[in-house]
Design a protein that fits this description.
Layout: H1 8-23, H2 28-35, H3 39-46, H4 54-64, H5 68-81
Helix pairs in contact: 1-5, 2-3
InterPro entries: Cro/C1-type_HTH, Lambda_DNA-bd_dom_sf
Protein name: Helix-turn-helix domain-containing protein
Pfam family, one: HTH_3
């Protein structure tokens, strides 16, 4: 199985992360500061220029007060709808 940071399945997860960040009223820079990372990392994740590492995903969800299970459900449902799993 070949993965891509540009798959439609991952795009849904990226949109969900961005939505959660915006719901918290956080800018990319503010979220990055909370993570202790450079803002370009968050920007690249949200703009499909960087794969989402599972640890980054979990840490980002914690900063956003987002349930990582909800994000994984979005990803899994997308995969199922495209009959990838």
């Amino acid at each position: 199985m070949k993965s891509s940071p540009y798959s439609p399945d991952v795009e849904k997860l990226r949109k969900w992360l961005k939505q959660k960040r915006e719901e918290q009223g956080l800018s990319i820079r503010a979220a990055a500061a909370m993570l202790g990372r450079h803002h370009s990392i968050i920007g690249k994740i949200e703009q499909e220029r960087k794969k989402i590492d599972i640890l980054e995903f979990a840490e980002y969800c914690a900063v956003l007060n987002a349930d990582p299970h909800e994000g994984l459900d979005i990803l899994l449902n997308s995969l199922r709808s495209r009959k990838k799993i």
